[in-house]
């Protein structure tokens, strides 16, 4: 059987790490990416790490014609991992239609194009954002979903609903949505990692850029939460562990027999760390003080979330292996390559 996997958004942060793991597991990979938030050089970096250059085509998935033509040429694809999406929470508030168009239309085009294939397997990038502030922690997959805090978050929720409905209507379609917690860190080679455009929004790149002197100081958004040190808690997961969850999901889909044809899983470590925990870990690892100040809460932030991971552990046979210090040290190693 063919082992060809399409990775949309495969030159992006999580996508590139997943392509590396797929190749190392013996899969053949072809990437579609429009390079709207990534660099084509990533394809060569993947080849440097793995010794194999993945296929690469540059276009936007909203172009139905190009996508249909692609699937006709690659009708031996056995699975699609769909990362390609816009992901800046703040921008989605000011440009909601840009987010709805891109994230929803691209998913629907991918689903419709699957008719060219004999196997219709999809792994979808979802987010713990669908839970909002959960009533119980750790949050499990059957927790009620809360109204989204941003148009970006809503695209994830609506995409999950589209996938569920599409699976109900088509028994041959098999989908796994992975609800990521907070991906951080970089590949140990420091050849690929997160490349935020402009000022980062997320905590880890903000920390490493501050540590590197690119940014003067980190703002800690709120120290009056109901947590041990007053700062907000998240479940940070190493991007390499997260990438491996996609391999587990693909293998599960390829072996699926009587399972439900739509499944979703939390992908986190199960541990919650505060903003100050990350800062302390960075200071421990680098031996340098990180300049930071406490400011007010950021609009839309939740207080506390971490994953219940039993379902992914049991059904996907996946669990996160890498600790917070490895997340911080790999992110720092990557940051230093960017500065030089
Ligand atoms: N934080 C700071 N200072 C910063 C940046 C972040 O204190 O400069 C804090 C935030 O307030 C939060 C924590 O660090 O408590 C983590 O923030 P991130 O922005 O790194 O991550 P979020 O949990 O806010 O965002 C994640 C995903 C998004 C998703 C969102 C939903 O990155 O894709 O969860 O809540 F939409």
Main features:
single chain, 40% helix, binds uridine-5'-diphosphate-4-deoxy-4-fluoro-alpha-D-galactose, seven-stranded parallel beta sheet, 13 strands, two-stranded parallel ribbon, 340 residues, alpha/beta
Task: Find the count of extended strands (DSSP E, 2+ residues).
Answer: 13
Note the run of SSEs as H and E: EHEHEHEHHEHEEHEEEHEEHEHH
Strand content: 15-25%
Say which molecules are bound, naming each kind only once.
uridine-5'-diphosphate-4-deoxy-4-fluoro-alpha-D-galactose
Helical amount: 40-55%
Task: State mean pLDDT (0 to 100 scale).
Answer: 96
Alpha plus pi helix count: 11
Low-confidence stretches: none
Q: What does the overall shape look like?
A: globular
Strands of the biggest beta sheet: in what spatial order?
3-2-1-4-5-6-11
Structural class of the secondary elements?
Answer: alpha/beta
Q: Span between N and C termini?
A: 44 Å
The main sheet comes to: 7 strands, parallel
